[in-house]
UniProtKB/TrEMBL annotation:
GO terms for cellular component: large ribosomal subunit. Pfam families: Ribosomal_L1. Signal peptide: none annotated. InterPro entries: Ribosom_uL1_bac-type, Ribosomal_uL1, Ribosomal_uL1-like, Ribosomal_uL1/biogenesis, Ribosomal_uL1_3-a/b-sand, Ribosomal_uL1_CS. The lineage of its organism: Bacteria, Bacillati, Bacillota, Bacilli, Lactobacillales. It comes from Vagococcus coleopterorum. NCBIfam families: rplA_bact. One of its GO terms (molecular function) is structural constituent of ribosome. One of its GO terms (biological process) is translation. This is Large ribosomal subunit protein uL1. It comes from the Bacteria.
Length: 229
């Protein structure tokens, strides 16, 4: 087992692992116990009472955070003709079709998000084996397979995040940076939280949210009391 640094040991002393904190208190404590020397990401993690193996319980979506993520995302758009021109005008970092597919096949991944028009999904689909494991495949549910490439690019640049439940029933979503004001992190969190609450499957019985934690890149997790939200 890896030995914890002195900074981490000091940070852990400030967090009561047996306690669930008020939302605002939890976010402030997560920032206070951040041990990274850079502007770390603040993330929330949900443990949900769902069965991802069932189609009606595969929670997935995307939302634009009101205060952004603190990171500028590089966007690659697969489009042709007028749609390619629209993507360039909207601020896409890279635009192309088979030429971009070939670059990816050769190991190029200098982008964060892929947007594709529906007619290009035949080309993009061939990259499933390399894009899938990295979570980069565009999907209609997250608004990244669309004819409205202008809107898609602008939303990603404005701070759009995607969320998806994993095999264990967990969802991890960034809500900003340690440098953000607490109020902005709370607002971003509330936007995500509202979406996940609305996505509760009808088949779910009992407690929907088993656990909710906020953490920073190299900081300890702080449990949030869902009753405080």
């Amino acid at each position: 087992m890896a030995k914890k640094s002195k900074q981490m040991q000091e940070a852990l002393k400030k967090v009561d692992t047996t306690k669930v904190y008020d939302l605002k208190e939890a976010i402030a404590l997560a920032k206070e116990t951040n041990t990274a020397k850079f502007d770390a990401t603040v993330e929330v993690a949900y443990r949900l009472n769902v069965d991802p193996k069932k189609a009606d319980q595969q929670i997935r979506g995307a939302v634009v955070l009101p205060n952004g993520t603190g990171k500028t995302q590089k966007v690659l758009v697969f489009a042709k003709g007028e749609k390619a021109k629209e993507a360039e005008a909207a601020g896409a970092d890279y635009v192309g079709d088979s030429d971009m597919a070939n670059k990816i096949q050769q190991g190029w991944f200098d982008f964060d998000v892929i947007v594709a028009t529906p007619d290009m999904m035949g080309e993009v689909g061939k990259l499933g084996r390399v894009l899938g494991p990295k979570g980069l495949m565009p999907n209609p549910k997250t608004g990244t397979v669309t004819m409205d490439v202008t809107k898609a690019v602008e939303e990603v640049k404005a701070g759009k995040v995607t969320y998806r439940v994993d095999k264990a029933g967990n969802i991890h979503v960034p809500i900003g940076k340690v440098s953000f004001d607490d109020a902005k992190l709370v607002e971003n969190f509330q936007t995500i939280h509202d979406m996940i609450v609305k996505a509760k499957p009808a088949a779910t019985k009992g407690t929907y949210m088993k656990n909710l934690v906020v953490t920073t890149t190299f900081g300890p997790g702080v449990k949030i009391d869902t009753a405080s939200i």
